Task: structure prediction
Amino acid sequence: MSEIHLQIDGKKVEAKEGMTVLEAARSADIFIPTLCHHEKLEPFGACRICTVEVEVRGRTKLVVSCVYPVEENLVVRTRSEKIDRIRKTLLELMLAHAPDSEQLQDLAGEYGADKDRFEKEASFCIHCGLCVRYCAEVKKKNAVGFVDRGIRKEISFIPEIASKECNSCKECFSLCPTSYLQAAFVLTEALAFPRASSQTALKK
Ligand code: SF4
Result:
């Protein structure tokens, strides 16, 4: 794999061919915020909070750093007025869904996002897909998936699989940026497989 030389926030960075801009930045201890990224998972590019500016052959464009590959002589900026404005709006949109998320609130403080800018649609899910992808890619269980599309899209546990797998696993719960996942599981457990959950409770 050949070495790629690029510049991130004025710092010279050496990366390996095939790395993304996010990976190159992290390898050089340069922080770019993420919400849907996880080292064990394929890049997803869903939350777009990792958007950065790149300069290619004199032209500047905005790219999603977790899926954008490094290139020789690429110039990257991880903060600018434009980037901060985009992150602020993205956070405001996500906060309409999950106003109590600590992770979102921390980022909102950094980017001056107003949690009340958009009308609340407290679905609690920001569609990062971490739980869905972790269960599919790492656990190979597919116990949780997306249902519906567009603004109606949400995650849903598959009772037939979740009733057998989740209680002894729970690995994806802590990945959820809004802490909604555990509540969604408890609700599914109570509604869809109460017998299994009461037996689990009796065994404790
Ligand atoms: S807790 Fe359930 S949904 Fe989450 S990773 Fe484990 S098996 Fe998959």
Summary: Confidence is low (pLDDT under 50) at residues 200-204.
